[in-house]
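User: I'm curious whether this sequence folds into something compact or stays loose and floppy. Could you predict its structure so I can see for myself?
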Amino acid sequence: MRRTDEALALAAQRGENAALEELLERYKYAVRGAARSYFLEGGETEDLVQEGMIGLYGAVRDFREDGGMRFKSFARLCIRRRIASAVRGAARKKHVPLNTYVPFAEEEGAQAALFSLSDPEAELIGGEERAEFLALLQKNLSAAEWRALTAYAEGLRIAEIAEREHGSAKSVENAVQRAKKKVQKLLQERKK
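Assistant: Here's the prediction. I'll summarize afterward.
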């Protein structure tokens, strides 16, 4: 005889792993459906499915028979809340630097590193185009941004650059971040 969702949830709370696995299997399509109705900036649907599965696990853990709700309704509520919370968290402005940074490969030489971005089109810039781009970059960056970016691209740590420049680590970090954004903008303009 097939057990009800409520009976499975209570059994899972008592440590019955088979009951937990059966509930997770029963609700996996509900989780996928809920995840598809949301968009996660900088993420994939699978990230939201994982968040939904965490919400489902929380529903199993927190379900109470005397709570006045069927397990199915409670589970869907927990799944949607967990996914919505993940989407809200990813959209916070404090995550923008992490989600939009321009990575540099660890190579010797500033010019080599400036063109070893993860963007394949940037790697195709060669010869005269490279010199032209460097000139454009130097024109668009302040002297402090240029020095900080080239030193960073050479592999120096922020603290080492600050020491070299006789400045604070915070001002160097800010200069590097501003320079990276400008590089990203110039690369995007070149693609057009």
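Summary: The radius of gyration is 25 Å. Residues 110-191 form a domain with the Arc Repressor Mutant, subunit A fold (CATH 1.10.10).
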